[in-house]
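User: Sequence in, structure out. Go.
Assistant: Echoing your sequence, followed by the structure tokens.
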Amino acid sequence: MTKKGSKTKPKKQKPEQLKIEGTGRIDAIPELDKAGEAYREARDARMELQEDESAAQDFLTAMLKKHGLTEYPYEGTDGKTYKATLGEAKAKVKRVTEKKPAKSE
């Protein structure tokens, strides 16, 4: 388990490999190469965020268990109310919305 506030070390970006004329794929389509690379970078960034989210979820789970709670309402930094709930294995956080009163006829 990671400690609160700890983050994974950012991976160093490798410089783009030099392209030497006359080498490489003959049938390469530069637009597709760029599109594939853009997707790969976005996927890698998402996976890094997923690791941070998982560590934060593990920490929240541990804190709820430590305090013997299965639910904990709190106000987020955005001013909205949220509720942390301890499930069977992991904690989840959902925004609390005010229920509208039912219309009476």
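User: And one key feature?
Assistant: The radius of gyration is 23 Å.
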